[in-house]
Structure formats: structure tokens, C-alpha cells
Amino acid sequence: MSLRAKLTLGTATAASLLLLAGTATAAEPGAPGIGDPYYPNAGNGGYDVSHYDIRLNYQPANDNLSGTTTILAKSTQNLSRFNLDFLLKVSSVRVNNKVAQFSQSGGELVVDPRGTLHKGAHMTIVVTYSDTPSAYAVDGYTSWKRTPDGALAIDQPDIAPWWFPSNNHPTDKARFDVSVAVPTGVEVISNGIFNGTAQQINGWTRWRYRSLQPQATYLAFIAIGQFEIRQSTAPNGQPVLNAYSERLGADYNASVASIERTPEMTEFLETQFGPYPFEAQGGVVTPGIGFALENQTRSTYDTAFFRRGANTYVVAHEVAHQWFGDSVSVQGWKDIWLNEGFASYAEWLWSEHVGEGTVQENSDYIYNMYPADSPFWQVLPGDPGAPNQFHGAVYDRGALTVHALRGEIGDEAFFTLLKQWPSEKRNGNATTEEFIAFAEKLSGKQLDELFQTWLYTPVKPAAAPGAAGFAASAATLTEPKSFQKIQETHELLAGHHH
């Protein structure tokens, strides 16, 4: 090649590099919301979180929570700044070991890393904070629940902003390490594997937990107070940790008689849904929450569920959520029936298993309980709207939808679907549209009309669901033995969230 040719090629290459540099994507702020139509400010854009290390100190006497959360993430665009969802007062933020600028407003922690974070870059974000969580409310609601002996960080659709900074939406799952130091004699319960306690020189004790599978931020929880903790091993070899508040009073024995059967129910539901998707099992019973919530690996129950004796139906419901809701989470909150419909159906499966009413009997009774002019049929489980996200229809009509699907595609395809769907979507997210497409592909049937009728039409369907298509008058139906417990459970579950 001649010198002139080399010079020409070099000039052209330089020009090309300049052109590429000029057209490279400029750094922009990450979006302050992930785009959920029900909760526009939930989550954030521009990065994906892989791990949270939450290391806290909590003083029950004055409700002071302090500590540091370290977030491991990766940028998904060229970032000039990004948001975290958080309410508490922050004292410092570091990004990749450099002190970052930050501001706080309306539950958003806006972080300026003082330089561009290029797409695909690893991010280590360290946030230090100290505050009183119960002092904060969003839309008049405080998710942090202070109790006479401690506090509970438990709620849905969000609790994270009251105790750790996060990308607070189910579509950005991560693994967690949670450790909380409290005055010695106070107990702390969280998700996953219990990694023991460590005595500190100041008369405090640090409690440590690790979640080995991806977890949505609203499913991460802590319960702090006076608890009896029972540890055992499940039939499948997994560790079981159950905790009972010392304030249960007369409800203590019924609570224990219910929660200690968690491994038995897990074992049964594995026959329906496939292998249990997580690394540990357990439950927590405490006054002060007014509902039950499927915190990953360790569901939490209010004592109200056990005031009339043992209640295994609420346990079956929350254990079923480990597959439907926790492992396979909603893509958007309008898809909530995929969580609640299947968890409610699991109660009917458990009822049949223990001989207290078949699935068909429970379905028929629910269908006939609500007359055609009942407002129940006006709520659309497939898109209930944020105010009705936890309406009873999402639970009961959601379960009726599941049974209608069973009647349409037959038992063989249906029970195959119950296992293949959570396996296919394990540790991920799903939409109703994806579920319908999956059911159609598996069954070979066109199902749009069925789902339109049961999820999206504000009238009572013409016939009860099920293989028999049975629709008798309510007066001729015998109430299943399980019905009162199931309905009592749903009344407490529905409508409790903000």
C-alpha cells in the first residue's frame, strides 16, 4: 500500500470515529417510574438490581432505624443520574466508591454520580440513613407498623421505601442479605436462610438472613419484637423457621396448630404445582397487621385468622403464593389475579384433599352466592383498577376463572399447566396475555372468549364453571365444610392494602 493510500485510509478512519463519537447515545437520567399504570412512580428506569445488602440497627424504644444498604446493579443505558424509591432521611450516597450528590422529594431519592455511568456498567451504590419510619405516610398511609414490642415492615404493594432504598417494582427482582441489630432479648425475623446471630459489645444482637433466589422488593420483610422461634427440618430437607409473637394470648395454640403444618401443605402443593421454588419454609404470626402476606419463604399472618381455631386454608393460600406471586410475579399490578386467583384455587384443592368439600362444590357455592345484580360481578379481575386491586372478586372470581379454564381444557391439560407455567416462568414475571397464550398453546384450544367472559365482562357468566357446568340455585346447594373458613380468610385478605 502506498503512503498516500495509507494517509487516505487513516483520514477516512479518523472521520468515521468522529462520526461514531458524535452519534453515540448521550447520557440521560433514568426514568423516575417503571411505567406501571396503577402506580406510575413505582420502580425506576436505567438500571437493574442484582443484590441488596441491608445492614441495620433498630431501637424499638424510639422507633429509630439506622444503617446502610449496599445495592449491586448494572446500568441499562448511559446514565447521568438515577432514582431510588425511599422515604427515610439519607446522610450519604456513594456510587462506585465516589461520593455522589443526591436530593430527596416525594419518596424519590435522586442520585447524581458526578459522571456518566455507561450502559452495561457495574454499579455499587451505598446509601447510609437514619430516621423514624413510622413518621412517614404516602397518600395518608403508613406501611411501617410499630408494635408495643417492636415493628413490622410488611405490606403490599410496597413496604420497601420505609426501610431500604430500592428499585421498588416486582419486575426488578434481586437476591438479599438482611441483618438487623437490636437490643439483646429482642428477636428479628426475615426471609430465607437464617444465618444465626452475633453478639455485639454494646449489649445488642445482630440477626442475619439470606435469600438465595430472586425476590421482589415488596416480599422482603422484617418482623421485630418478642417472638418464640421454632426451627425444624421439612420432609424435603429444607430448614423451617416459624415465629410466634408473645402477644398472641388465647390465639397461640390455634396459630401453632396451623403454621406448624406449613411443610405438610408445601408437600401437598408440590404434587399440584411442581417442586417448591425456594430454599426455606416457615411463617410468622403476630398481631398488628390485619392481614396475611406471602413474604417469600416466610409468610406472615395476623392473629385474626386463628381466633376461631386452627385455619389451614390461609396457610394453603399463602404457601401457594410461593409459586404464584413470588416465583412467578406480576409484570404489572393489573395482573394481580394471576397471584390471587391461583392462591384461592389452592384453598379449594386443599379442601378437597382434606375431605372438607370438593373443588366443584366450592366453585358452585361461590358462583351461586353472588346474585346477578351483585356489585361483585362489576369488578373485573383482569384489570380491577388500583382501588379494587385486592377486592374479593379478584380472589373469588379469579378462582372461578381458574376452574372455568379447567372445565374447558380438561384435567390432563389443566394439571399439566399448573406445573409447567410456574416452571416456565420461575423467578420471572408474567402478564395475563402471556398466561392465555401459554394455556392456548398447551391445550390446543382458543380461549379468548373464556377469559373475556370471566376476567373482563362486568356481568355474571351464564353458567357456573367446571366440567359439569353445574348451576343450581343457592338454596339447593350444601355449603362445603371448608366454606366458612375460606370466606373468613378472604374477607381478611381482601381490601387490606393501600
From TrEMBL:
InterPro entries tied to this protein: Aminopeptidase_N-like_N, Aminopeptidase_N-like_N_sf, Peptidase_M1, Peptidase_M1_aminopeptidases, Peptidase_M1_dom, Peptidase_M4/M1_CTD_sf
Keywords: Aminopeptidase, Hydrolase, Metal-binding, Metalloprotease, Protease, Signal, Zinc
Molecular function per GO: alanyl aminopeptidase activity; metallopeptidase activity; zinc ion binding
ATP-binding is among the record's keywords: no
Cofactor: Zn(2+)
Top-rank EC class of the record's enzyme: hydrolase
Domain Peptidase M1 membrane alanine aminopeptidase: 292-454
Signal peptide start and end residues: 1-26
A Pfam family annotated for this UniProt entry: Peptidase_M1
Protein name as annotated: Aminopeptidase N
